[in-house]
Amino acid sequence: MTYPIAVRSALVMWTKTNVPELSKVSVLMKQRTKVEETLRAMQHAGAGNLQVISDFDMTLTRFAHCGKRVPTTHNILDHRILIDEDCTQKMRALLNFYYPIEIDASQTSEQKLPLMVEWWTKVHHLLIQQNIQRDMLAQAVRESGVILRDGYEVFFDRLAELQVPLLIFSAGVGDILEEVVRQSRVFHPNVHVISNYMDFDDHGVLRAFKGHLIHTFNKREGALLHAANLPELQGRPNVLLLGDSLGDLTMADGVAQPHHLLTVGFLNDQVEERKESYVEAFDIVLVKDETMEVPNGVLKFITSGGGHAK
Ligand SMILES: [Mg+2]
């Protein structure tokens, strides 16, 4: 079939920005045109100018699997080889009190911030009292039922192949997070983790948590303090950011003078209450989508152009 010139160029433009995954029913976008422009600009700059910054719990991991909630890195610690029944009960009581605050659409991040610090400080104190053995963490992860989103291998492997740094920025527990990624066989050399790390004594027993507490609503401080100094991220002004919480949007604040930023938000639960704020805040919102199909499609598009590799 022969198309007139104007139609042909329109088709070329469409083909150039086509990410078929963006047509999935789970995808919401406030400004599709802006997303497409950003995608084209990022494709033009290529993989050599790209870095990926991602949250971990309920972003790289699934929210639910076979009708059951998938554990977060903190929940994985809720295993009898690590903590006792009393500690479990106390951590659950804290979750029941503080989690509704974390996802309450009627409160600002600033209002929630001191309460989140209170929550995780209490949890860490409880954990420290349990004499957790470092040697037991791998078994707890294996038996936890934690699972990364479908298509995670493509995501991790492609980034490694192209030597695009993946910064995983988590308010969870770094030691557990690393073990999950390791057991999933995708802990490639391009993966960098900023999280809360356990401090073990000479006998491998948990005695404290290292550094300042990172929680959902202070990732900006963490980004400025840690991510800004990672040499692997220098000279890569384009950012693909993945998160499941509005607080995750500040993870890119450590990037000096970003050229293009594309944000993808997983909206896992409380969909009706939070849809509007997510669509306002993230460029692409994925509603109850347990897969990496859209991030993979976006990544494939950005890195398949003629951009110059480093
Ligand atoms: Mg999360």
From TrEMBL:
Species of the source: Muraenolepis orangiensis
Assembly behavior: Monomer.
Catalysed reaction equations from the record: N(7)-methyl-GMP + H2O = N(7)-methylguanosine + phosphate; a ribonucleoside 5'-phosphate + H2O = a ribonucleoside + phosphate; CMP + H2O = cytidine + phosphate
Gene3D superfamilies: HAD superfamily/HAD-like, Pyrimidine 5'-nucleotidase (UMPH-1), N-terminal domain
GO molecular function, one term: nucleotide binding
Localization per record: Cytoplasm
GO BP terms, alphabetized: nucleotide metabolic process
Keyword field contains Metal-binding: yes
Pfam families associated with the record: UMPH-1
Record's protein name: 5'-nucleotidase
Function: Specifically hydrolyzes 7-methylguanosine monophosphate (m(7)GMP) to 7-methylguanosine and inorganic phosphate. The specific activity for m(7)GMP may protect cells against undesired salvage of m(7)GMP and its incorporation into nucleic acids. Also has weak activity for CMP. UMP and purine nucleotides are poor substrates.
First-tier enzyme category under EC: hydrolase
A GO CC term attached to the entry: cytoplasm
Source taxon at top rank: Eukaryota
NCBIfam families on file: HAD-SF-IE (TIGR01544)
Main subcellular location: cytoplasm
Keywords: Cytoplasm, Hydrolase, Magnesium, Metal-binding, Nucleotide metabolism, Nucleotide-binding
Family, similarity comment: Belongs to the pyrimidine 5'-nucleotidase family.
Record InterPro entries: HAD-like_sf (IPR036412), HAD_sf (IPR023214), Pyrimidine_nucleotidase_eu (IPR006434)
Enzyme Commission (EC) number: 3.1.3.5
